[in-house]
Specification:
- The structure holds two protein chains of two kinds.
- By secondary structure, chain A is mostly helical.
- Chain A folds into two domains: 1-109; 115-359, no CATH class.
- Helix content of chain A is 73%, strand content 0%.
- In chain A, helix 3 (42-63) packs parallel to helix 5.
- The radius of gyration of chain A is 23 Å and the shape is globular.
- Chain B is an alpha/beta fold.
- Chain B has two domains: 1-79 and 170-259, Rossmann fold; 90-169, no CATH class.
- In chain B, the strands form two sheets. Chain B has a six-stranded mixed sheet, with helices on both faces. Chain B has a four-stranded antiparallel sheet with strand order 2-1-4-5, with helices on one face.
- Chain B is globular and about 70 Å long.
- The chains are: A mainly alpha, B alpha/beta.
- The A-B interface holds A 284, 287-288, 290-293, 295-296, 298-299, 302-303, 305-314, 320, 434-435, 437-438, 441 and B 50, 52, 71-74, 76-77, 81-82, 84, 88-93, 97, 100-102, 104-105, 107, 109, 111, 114-117, 121, 125, 128, 148, 150, 164, 168.
């Protein structure tokens, strides 16, 4: 059994190199399944994972097929969840995947970068929402509103939009984006305060409905604030939004021997920026979870009366959770605006809020690796798997009517996955120990 | 100065007067019991003291300070710890974390220090953890510190709840039926423990209890509630022989029979 997994991995490595095709990648995913789920000795398992990492990377480089990316995500999950793998190897392999494999794959197929950046932005937001929903237990259905506030904070001043109501030299140069990441923390936290003050006096379902409503208010404001004074340019959105200059990044890469062309340089830059942000967000998440604030949030979620009797003030503590989550989302909004160079109200619908919430629930409420995995799974599903599948259907079954195009059933599949999750694994894909305990109780 | 001074407190729920014009005072360092038949309003009375409900009428003074109508977290900060009739631990947190939540108001880490886990934050967290461990040792639960609170046996959960209230460093400790569900031996240990708290830590203790043996042995003074009103107050001996109390517990006519 031990040797089998490594043999399979090795076979896939050969296939990936010689005959990279969707079929061989599926074989690779099967090999990963064998490695992850069969009883293996730690050494063999580690060896197989390392081989598979190499193989998926090679496969991605040679074919650019995004099934390989799913494989890499799978390996990352295996590295975070499987027991008895040496910590050094976990870290090393994970870093290799994030810093080498994905960029290498991105050069073969820039769509990998696009996916990576989207996953990253959503993962950071899912981690922010994780503070609000997972730790403090406040069901927020309007979370995309903070994303919008962050995005518009930079979009308005990083484009000519600000000229409509301010004297000055707009757009601000791209370097200001970094400053605006800080400013967005303030503006979104203040928005959080504004929404939270009335909403957080309510509980449970009532809170969910009110946040849903206020979230929509923000989107509708963005849609309609093009008159009397044009702040947001309404439904047309704002474009072009400035991106930071990255000459230093190009030079840095050139000294490392990587020569970037005009299409990949910004993609790679934003990929690394998003990666850095996730690192920071995870760090802050962990720090807060192990502080008196994190404990106070969990205590409030568990038992409000008991928490208050311990001297924890209800509204301020909930507000703090709300504002913290909002700030994470705001920073990612700035990056989102700069990366797309385009911002419009369409990106901040109720569906966006629900998708982010879905990521948190899918991954496991309160769990940090869970939130990231949830973001990866749903983003890949939305942007890649369903689209690829519908293309496949269109090519192989051209007589099939347009109405049953699988891409149109994205939401159906999404809903189906959530329903199946709630039935078979209600605690999420990578549950946090606390929530697992709560689920067992129920 | 009294530890607790309640004047004419009243709480109504719609037409029901749960606490009716109750006045009483508790001296510092006293062990004071509140007893009464089921539904007499004892727990509601506790909830008035801890701010879970504001009283409709009357005033509540803690160590000379008027706390009437303050929210529970403010009253906790005045040095009032409490336990609940049906244990309310944070079940999915570990034993140690439960105590750390209890110490919330004594851990001084500003938000931005917590976000970046600065040296100050580390130091404070470490100090708090040491203190929580000492407290766990004091109630002999240290060996359980990493277990989830809900996995503890019933007796230890009761103990942990008291420890969590102690983590607040209270001047006044309110215990709501601490001996509920305990066998005679456990009750005896509890009695010694409560007395130790008063003698060693100087905490004033008010308890609601149904176990009359415990109440009579431990209390300096006792107040009796019936239908929300106070019908008697005094030393255990006085309360035991009070005809109104006997009537409340055993029904009309029993007082004559007992005399």
């Amino acid at each position: 059994m031990n040797a089998l997994s490594s043999l399979l991995s090795l076979a896939y490595l050969g296939l990936a190199f010689l005959a990279p095709s969707p079929v061989s990648h599926l074989f690779g995913l099967a090999a990963l399944g064998v490695t992850a789920f069969l009883r293996l000795s730690p050494t063999w398992r580690t060896l197989s994972l390392a081989l598979l990492t190499l193989a998926f990377t090679v496969g991605l480089m040679r074919s650019g097929n995004t099934l390989g990316l799913i494989g890499l995500v799978g390996i990352l999950v295996a590295l975070t969840t499987l027991p008895r793998i040496p910590t050094g190897i976990r870290v090393l392999l994970a870093l290799a995947i994030l810093l080498l494999s994905v960029p290498l794959a991105g050069f073969a197929n820039t769509f990998v970068f696009e996916l990576g950046i989207q996953i990253g932005i959503y993962a950071a937001m899912a981690l922010g929402l994780n503070v609000v929903v997972g730790m403090a237990g406040l069901l927020d259905l309007g979370y995309a509103a903070f994303f919008a506030v962050g995005a518009y904070t930079w979009a308005i001043f990083g484009s000519e939009q600000a000229k409509n109501f301010l004297q000055g030299n707009f757009p601000l140069p791209g370097e200001y984006m970094y400053l605006f990441m800080g400013i967005a923390i303030v503006t979104t936290a203040l928005t959080g305060l504004l929404i939270g003050l009335p909403a957080l006096r309510l509980r449970g379902d009532y809170l969910a409905i009110v946040t849903l409503g206020l979230g929509e208010v923000v989107r509708i404001l963005a849609n309609n604030l093009d008159h009397p004074i044009n702040f947001t340019n309404g439904p047309q959105g704002i474009t072009p939004v400035q991106r930071p200059p990255i000459d230093w990044f190009r030079q840095l890469m050139a000294t490392l021997g990587v020569h970037l062309d005009r299409t990949t340089d910004y993609q790679l830059f934003f990929y690394f920026l998003v990666l850095l942000m996730i690192g920071l967000v995870v760090l802050v998440n962990v720090n807060l979870a192990n502080s008196r604030f994190g404990r106070a949030w969990v205590a409030i979620r568990e038992d409000e009366v008991a928490a208050r009797s311990m001297g924890i003030p209800l509204l301020p503590t909930k507000l703090l959770a709300f504002m913290t989550g909002a700030a994470f989302s705001g920073v990612m909004g700035v990056i989102f605006a700069a990366q797309r160079t385009f911002v419009s109200p369409e990106s901040f619908t109720l569906l966006a809020s629900i998708t982010i919430l879905g990521m948190v629930i899918l991954g496991g409420m309160g769990s940090i690796p869970g939130a990231i995995l949830g973001a990866a799974a749903l983003t890949i599903l939305n942007l890649d798997v369903l689209k690829t599948f519908s293309e496949f259907v269109r090519i192989s079954l051209p007589q099939i009517p347009n109405q049953v195009d699988p891409a149109k059933y994205e939401r159906l599949v999404f809903g189906l996955i959530l329903v199946l999750m709630m039935i078979f694994r209600p605690e999420g894909l990578i549950p946090e120990k606390r929530h697992r305990a709560e689920m067992e109780e129920a | 100065m009294k530890a607790l001074e309640v004047t004419q407190a009243t709480k109504r729920f719609g037409g029901l007067v749960a606490v009716n014009d109750v006045s009483l005072s508790v001296n510092q360092g006293e062990i004071f019991s509140v007893i009464g038949p089921n539904g007499a309003g004892k727990t509601t009375f506790f909830n008035l003291l801890t701010g879970i409900y504001p009283p409709d009428e009357g005033r509540i003074l803690l160590f000379g300070k008027d706390v009437t109508g303050l929210p529970p977290d403010r009253i906790a900060k005045e040095g009032v710890g409490r336990t609940f009739q049906n244990i309310r631990l944070f079940g999915a947190m570990t034993v140690l974390e439960n105590l750390l939540v209890g110490m919330h108001i004594h851990i001084h880490v500003p938000y931005f220090h917590a976000v970046f886990r600065t040296p100050l934050a580390r130091r404070e967290e470490k100090r708090a953890e040491e203190e929580a461990k000492r407290l766990l040792e004091y109630v002999s639960l240290l060996h359980r510190k990493d277990e989830l609170a809900k996995n503890l046996p019933y007796g230890e959960q009761r103990k942990l709840e008291i420890a969590r209230a102690l983590a607040l460093k209270p001047r006044l400790l309110l215990l709501d039926e601490p001996a509920a569900g305990m066998n005679p031996k456990e009750t005896e240990e509890l009695q010694a423990f409560i007395q130790k708290l008063r003698d060693e830590l100087g905490i004033t203790i008010v308890l609601i209890e149904h176990d009359m043996r415990l109440v009579m042995r431990i209390s300096d003074r006792i107040a009796v509630l019936e239908y929300g009103s106070k019908i008697a107050e005094g030393s255990p001996e006085e309360v035991r022989t009070n005809p109104r109390v006997i009537e409340a517990y055993l029904g009309k006519g029993a007082a004559g029979g007992a005399a």
